[in-house]
Design brief:
- The chain is an alpha+beta fold.
- It has a single domain, classed as Double-stranded beta-helix.
- 17% of the residues lie in helices and 25% in strands.
- 41% of the residues are buried.
- Bound molecules: N-oxalylglycine (OGA) and manganese (II) ion.
- Manganese (II) ion binds next to loops.
């Protein structure tokens, strides 16, 4: 008996884990239960966790080696004492942002898929939240793939897409990048459109982000039409979980089989989140044919 309770938060993904204090070191049984719950629900929420930065780092390391933040628009880490921690905030001190993503919408994406080995997980810890707005949503990309029509599964089987590195989800250009005029030439990793999840072996649609995405080998119009249809399907509310933040919420998500987005919030409000992420591996293509899916062509 670990004393932990896991309660689903939506029909498609997300669960609340209660009866746990993440400041304590967690024994083998508890870790096994967390891993099992995470594999099943993809996004775990822990409420009332007032963690210091070292405590956030220690809990994050339970899930693997830390992956440092990608380049932000300002070109240097937000926390010089803890460069492995990223800050997501709209706050400015003397006109200088203390964190990334501002107060606007962050469009649907998954994190850092423009690199060959995108992070396997991310943890977001709410230190200060606005009274309303700034909700975050996740989508279950296993379910999204499963529910695609066979015709579309056949169309994307064996295909790869470009994951553009130029802009972050708030539309800001990353340091050192230049404007992309042709998505076929966008800088960034090429990943299979359908991946085999490295831990579960299950297929998941892997989209990254829509801006400057391009399906290799297609003409640009065909690629855009296909991507628009895939994104429309992937972000339907029936596949998503909505998080209304409270101070000291900690959310852990799997970055290979979910997408996320964030609502805008009042620029006069304060939102401060500290964030870590865990190193991932290269992503392999799912082969629908050898997996026995009978896809008409
Ligand atoms: C992120 C992110 C959303 C939010 O940290 O990767 O997209 O709710 N954050 O701030
Ligand atoms: Mn993100």
């Amino acid at each position: 008996m670990t004393g932990i309770t896991v309660t689903p938060l939506a029909s498609s993904l997300g669960a609340e884990v209660s009866g746990i204090d993440l400041r304590q070191s967690l024994d083998h049984d508890i870790l096994a239960e967390l891993q099992e719950a995470w594999g099943r629900h993809l996004v775990l929420r822990f409420r009332g966790q007032a963690l210091t930065d070292p405590e956030l780092l220690a809990f994050s390391r339970v899930f693997g080696d830390l992956d440092p933040p990608g380049p932000n628009p300002y070109g240097k880490p937000f926390l010089s004492e803890f460069p492995e921690i990223n800050v997501i905030s709209n706050v400015k001190v003397d006109g200088v942002p203390i964190g990334n993503l501002g107060d606007g919408e962050a469009v649907w994406h998954c994190d850092m898929t423009y690199v060959e080995r995108p992070p396997r997980a991310a943890l977001l810890h709410a230190l200060e939240v606005p009274p309303g707005g700034g909700d975050t949503y996740w989508s279950n990309m296993y379910l999204v793939y499963e529910t695609l029509p066979d015709r579309v599964k056949a169309l994307i089987d064996g295909r790869k897409a470009i994951h553009d590195a130029t802009y972050n989800s708030a539309g800001m250009m990353r340091k050192g990048m230049k404007e992309v005029t042709d998505p076929r030439e966008a800088p960034g990793a090429h990943h299979p459109l359908v991946i085999v999840h490295p831990d579960t072996g299950r297929p998941a649609l892997f989209l990254g982000r829509r801006r400057n995405s391009y399906v290799l080998g297609m003409d640009i119009d065909e690629s855009n039409t296909l991507l628009d249809a895939l994104w429309e399907h992937a972000t339907k509310s029936e596949f998503t979980f909505r998080q209304e933040w409270r101070q000291h919420d900690l959310i852990l998500w799997d970055n290979r089989c979910t997408l996320h987005r964030r609502d805008a919030f009042d620029p006069a409000a304060t939102r401060i989140m500290h964030r870590t992420q865990i190193k991932g591996t290269a992503l392999q293509a799912f082969d629908a044919t050898t997996a026995g899916l009978a896809l008409e062509s």
